[in-house]
């Protein structure tokens, strides 16, 4: 297994005050260097940064723009020629002024390994678009959605479990978000390490033990999950390294909270960033 794995849980047009609420986990090799969410010096955005390839997995920008990417788990598919980093996709969207639909249409999909990209701009006609190179770009319908490392809304156990939990969280969510009504329960949701039953697991080509290890919302790989072919890559450990919450309100104010982890353990307090709305 060579790719980072992630989970995006999306509540789109499900709250009267927040057109977009996004909960996300980033899973990655523990030894791969990365910077936590921060304002980028070279661009007006807040995002984490992959210090190997230079891109990001999720970020926000003024005007309520939000972008995130997940990788497709397909170990048997060869790498494209002149491959580009998928972390460029959200970073370049946040740098641009293009609408989600226009940006998605211009992506050179053949240059990337498999991906899904979530692109949001509340000022656009099609404000929430899911791009990818294993499906055509499409405008997402209002609802609660989940995207992991397969097709959008694929009924993987973590996607179904996460969507149910997110729907329950927002059912009585007030207009004013605070640690008690949103941040703490959302992070608790993202810390769910319940593994799926074997009969519910997808078959993505990584073997049953690894499918099980990757099945929770919060991933923490154990030694017994590591097969011989994965042992070298996994030697430094693998799992959820960051949980991120994003809220965009009806005025375009966008907020981001990020909780980071070291070796599967909470590291410090959540960071908070905000771009004001109109």
TrEMBL record:
InterPro entries: TANGO2. Pfam families: TANGO2. It comes from the Bacteria. PANTHER family: SER/THR-RICH PROTEIN T10 IN DGCR REGION, TRANSPORT AND GOLGI ORGANIZATION PROTEIN 2 HOMOLOG. This is Uncharacterized protein with NRDE domain. It comes from Microbulbifer hydrolyticus.
């Amino acid at each position: 297994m060579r790719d980072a794995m992630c989970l995006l849980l999306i509540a789109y047009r499900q709250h009267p005050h927040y057109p977009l609420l996004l909960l996300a986990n980033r899973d990655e090799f523990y030894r791969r260097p990365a910077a936590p969410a921060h304002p980028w010096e070279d661009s007006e955005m807040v995002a984490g940064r992959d210090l190997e390839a230079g891109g990001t997995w999720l970020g926000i920008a003024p005007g309520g723009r939000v972008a995130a990417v997940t990788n497709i788990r397909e170990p048997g598919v060869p790498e494209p020629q002149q491959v580009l980093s998928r972390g460029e996709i959200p970073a370049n969207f946040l740098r641009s002024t293009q609408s989600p639909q226009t940006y998605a249409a211009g992506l050179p999909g053949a240059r990337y390994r498999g991906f899904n990209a979530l692109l949001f701009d509340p000022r656009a006609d099609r404000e929430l678009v899911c791009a990818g190179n294993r499906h055509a770009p499409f405008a997402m319908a209002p609802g609660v959605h989940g995207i992991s490392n397969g097709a959008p809304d694929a009924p993987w156990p973590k996607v179904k479990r996460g969507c149910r939990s997110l729907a329950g969280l927002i059912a009585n969510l007030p207009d004013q978000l605070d640690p008690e009504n949103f941040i703490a329960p959302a992070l608790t949701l993202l810390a769910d390490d319940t593994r799926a039953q074997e009969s519910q697991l997808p078959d993505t080509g990584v073997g049953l033990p690894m499918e099980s290890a990757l099945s929770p919302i919060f991933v923490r790989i154990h030694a017994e999950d590591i097969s011989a072919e994965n042992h070298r890559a996994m030697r430094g450990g693998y799992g959820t390294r960051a949980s991120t919450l994003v809220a965009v309100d009806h005025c375009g104010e966008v907020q981001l909270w990020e909780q980071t982890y070291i070796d599967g353990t909470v590291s410090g307090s959540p960071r908070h960033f905000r771009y004001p709305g109109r």
